[in-house]
Structures are given as structure tokens and as C-alpha cells.
Amino acid sequence: MSGPESDFLRAAQERGYIHQVTDLAALDAKLRAGPVSAYIGFDVTADSLHVGHLMSIMLLRLFQRTGNRPVVLIGGGTTKVGDPSGKDEARQLLTEAIIEANKAGIRRSFAPFLAFGEGATEAVMLDNAAWLDELRYIPFLRDVGRHFSVNRMLTMDSVRLRLERDQPLSFLEFNYMLLQSYDFLELHRRHGVALQMGGSDQWGNIVMGADLVRRMAQQEAFGLTTPLLTTASGAKMGKTASGAVWLNPDRLAPYDYWQFWRNSEDGDVERFLALFTDLPMAEVRRLGALRGAEINEAKKVLATEATALLHGAEAAQTAAETARRAFEAGEAAETLPSIAHALPSTVVDLLAAAKLVGSKGEARRLVAQNGVRLNDAPVTDPLQPVTAADLRDGAAKLSLGRKRHVLVRAG
């Protein structure tokens, strides 16, 4: 076929969301025929999602914006098992109390991106614990397990790679693909879901789920995966020296989220604008074509648009203005992130306390590389004391490079 005709697949392909589809032509026809329900599953291993989940969230957003119904599946049940995909070892099992707390936090991650409700194209959030916790083992094996070939399961990357590395794979984890496939079947039965989407590492599980729906419900079912996302330099998307880039504001301030996008590599700007903003593709291509110093303006647009989607336009503009004052006007803006710390202290201790670095060893290396400033003055000694005399209007500005700053207050 020359290219998809449905609004969703055409836009998803143009913006770079599509890696694999089980039957592109048939899915395109189904989408053209009317609203389709599709889901993506999210296990609840933390109390917030992070930027590594953002492509999936934005894909659900695009799905809704093109007239379809997104289903967010919270893995209250599957989290108790642990997905072996992409893992070198078994995931730590969480208690029921932690899982419940994490579910509440993750629900907040979706609110800015999707419109929830009861309408035909309004998003719904479900928890697979509703059916997985009630499963009876023998009936499940008889009804569902008989459709799975162990020979085929052993060829799936999530299993094969662990076995090739001679790393242990528990029977608990081996069951994960059965449970994920069963999720698809239950969502089809209960909510008419016809499409499962997810990251490229989920392809095997998604194909097996679509196959289970066809076998047990005698209905067509589809799968779609997004490409593995790395930065232009090959680094894993969403990771920094100080850890994950969280979506919930209680885990990461809007200013720091803005800075994450502002610090994108030049080669990533056009791709990130397409994936992580709602800007029209004509504007995305115009910004992506900028070169030299002008690319920094495109990065600011990326940062402001991405931050506005998550935290709102006001927070995004505040972050942009804070950055302008801090970087271009050289001011210690009051809206910069701040920490309270007992003074006197050393520069290396404050860098670690502010989480500007992953370790004190990294802080010492950055000082040696002339990458640290205190109140805009270069720091040459990692053990340089910071005292009350260094405070300006109640705070000292500690800077890592040109783009990361924190205000240190006595506390």
C-alpha cells in the first residue's frame, strides 16, 4: 500500500511513532471504519512515570486526538510478577501497600495528557488486578495455557536473552507473557479493545496477545510498537547523571523538566519536537532545520512546549523566563530550584545534596574540569567552603556548567 489513510496511522507514521504493526492494511481499514479502542500497559514499579514512558503516553494522546479511545492499563496484577523484557535479573517484588501507593502516583502522570470520561473517544484507566487477582490456576491453564507453545515462548527475546546469558529466569517471570496476553483478551471482552501498543521490546508479548484474542474470541486483533528511543549520542532516553526524569512535579520540579529538554542534543531536536509536542509537522521541520546558534531557539521551543503539556503553560513560561534570567541576564532568579543545607559546607557536598551530580567523585571531576561556579565565580577547589558570607539575598547560586543551577539557602 502507498501509505496509511487513517488519521491516526498517517500522523503516527509521519511523527515517527511506528516501528512494527501486525497488519498495517487491516488496521488502517478498521481505523477508517470508526473509533477503535487501544491500550498500553504500565506496571507500577514507582510512584511516578518518567520520560522513558513519555512516547507511549504521547502515542495514546495522538490516538485520542485522531478520534479514537485510549485505554490506560495499570498493572496492579502484573507488577506482582515482573516483566522480564529487557531485564538482566528478576525485578524486586513489591508489597501490596507499595503497589497501591504507586498506582495512585502513576494515575497523576496521565492527567495532563488525556481526557478521561465515559464518551466513545474519552480515555479510561483500568487495573488488571481486577481480573488477574481472581484467576483460578487450573481453569486458567486449561482455557488459556493450552494456546501457548513453550517452544515459541523460548524464542521470545525476553526469555531467550536471559537464557543465553545464563541468567536465572523464574517460573513466575516466565508466566508474564501469558498474563499480558490474557490482559488483551479481557480488555477485548470487557471493553472492545482491538489494538495493543507498546515499546519495541514488547513485540513478542503483543503478538501473542493478539493471537490469543483471535483464537479465543474469534475476533481480529492488532499490535503496534514504537521504536527504541536513544539520544543522538546513543544514550538511553530519559536518564541523567542524577537519575530518572520524572513526570510528577513532586519528583521533579517543572524548571528541571524544562532544563532536561533544553539540554537536548542538536541532532535530537526535530525528532523530539515531533514525538513530544503537539506542534504541526511543518513547524517541527522548520525548527529542526535551524543550524548553529539558532538551534538553541528550537531547543527552547521544545522545552517550553513539552513542559506546557505536562505542567501547564504558566509553569512552562515561568521556567523559560527563569532560565533566561539565570543564563542570559546572569541573575539568581528566585524561581530557580533551591535546597536548604547547613552552612558552612563544601562545594562537593552541596553539589551532591542538590543532586546536580550522581556522586561526590563526579563533583570533584567537574570542579577539576572548571565546570562548577559559585555565584558565577569559578570553583577551583572541591572542598571550597560555602558559608553564610556567600549568600546573596539569602541564597548562593551553585552552577554546573552553563545550564544547571540551584540556589543554596541556610537550613
TrEMBL record:
Catalyzes the attachment of tyrosine to tRNA(Tyr) in a two-step reaction: tyrosine is first activated by ATP to form Tyr-AMP and then transferred to the acceptor end of tRNA(Tyr). It comes from Paracraurococcus ruber. NCBIfam families: tyrS. It comes from the Bacteria. The keyword Nucleotidyltransferase does not apply. The keyword Secreted does not apply. Homodimer. Pfam families: S4, tRNA-synt_1b. It is found in: Cytoplasm. Residues 349-390 form the RNA-binding S4 domain. Its main location: cytoplasm. This is Tyrosine--tRNA ligase. The gene is tyrS. L-tyrosine binds at Y39, Y176, Q180. GO terms for molecular function: ligase activity. SUPFAM superfamilies: Alpha-L RNA-binding motif, Nucleotidylyl transferase. Signal peptide: none annotated. Belongs to the class-I aminoacyl-tRNA synthetase family. TyrS type 1 subfamily. ATP binds at K239. It is an enzyme of class 6 (ligase). It catalyses: tRNA(Tyr) + L-tyrosine + ATP = L-tyrosyl-tRNA(Tyr) + AMP + diphosphate + H(+).
